[in-house]
């Protein structure tokens, strides 16, 4: 008698099996990029924004709606309705793990046809005079999907630029929103605080 397998585990196993069969091995089709912003807001407020998804529709134009549940271990099961550039809504289920009071790792369970899988991470780091908020993304490209989206002969570098433009914009929007949220909370704690001090190059 076999053990029941969680649907999330089934999805991850399927991704691994598909990646193992890629020409040249999975490493040849992986693309990773990272963006960061600086803020003088508090780490706790940045993390509050990244973790409390119910505030995202108010602050992110591409997020129409979010529902989620979080267990005692900080694992979130999420359904996000994202608006495409033409306003078309797309529902994206995902799993998020809140770690170390400084990281949120997430895996969308559906991805655009150009990719097999996407793994993302939000990372918050305290420095001497500021806080850095980073978004790091690794995408496993799908050769067949690349041909459907970009045409025959599409190369990995072109597909990577396509991913960078689309996913990178949403990532930067989220980082900027986290920065603004934290700095607004900081101003709420100290109304006399000068906004000039909060300028971050």
Automatic annotation (TrEMBL):
Q: Which SUPFAM superfamilies match?
A: Bet v1-like
Q: Which domain of life is it from?
A: Bacteria
InterPro entries, from UniProt?
A: START-like_dom_sf
Q: What is this protein called?
A: Uncharacterized protein
**Which organism encodes this protein?**
Rhodococcus jostii
Q: Species lineage, top-down?
A: Bacteria, Bacillati, Actinomycetota, Actinomycetes, Mycobacteriales
């Amino acid at each position: 008698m076999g053990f029941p397998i969680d649907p999330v585990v089934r999805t991850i196993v399927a991704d691994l099996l598909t990646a193992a069969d890629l020409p040249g091995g999975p490493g040849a089709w992986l693309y990773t990029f990272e963006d960061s912003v600086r803020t003088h807001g508090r780490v706790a407020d940045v993390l509050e924004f990244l973790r409390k998804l119910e505030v995202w529709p108010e602050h992110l134009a591409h997020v129409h709606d979010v529902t989620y549940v979080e267990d005692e271990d900080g694992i979130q099961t999420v359904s996000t309705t994202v608006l495409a550039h033409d306003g078309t809504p797309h529902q994206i289920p995902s799993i998020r793990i809140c770690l170390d009071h400084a990281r949120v790792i997430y895996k969308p369970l559906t991805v655009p046809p150009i990719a097999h899988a996407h793994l993302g991470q939000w990372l918050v780091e305290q420095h001497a005079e500021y806080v850095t908020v980073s978004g790091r993304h690794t995408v496993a490209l799908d050769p067949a999907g690349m041909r459907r989206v970009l045409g025959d002969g599409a190369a990995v570098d072109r597909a990577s630029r396509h991913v960078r433009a689309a996913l990178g914009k949403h990532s930067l929007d989220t980082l900027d929103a986290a920065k603004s949220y934290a700095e607004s909370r900081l101003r709420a704690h100290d109304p006399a605080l000068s906004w000039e001090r909060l300028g971050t190059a």
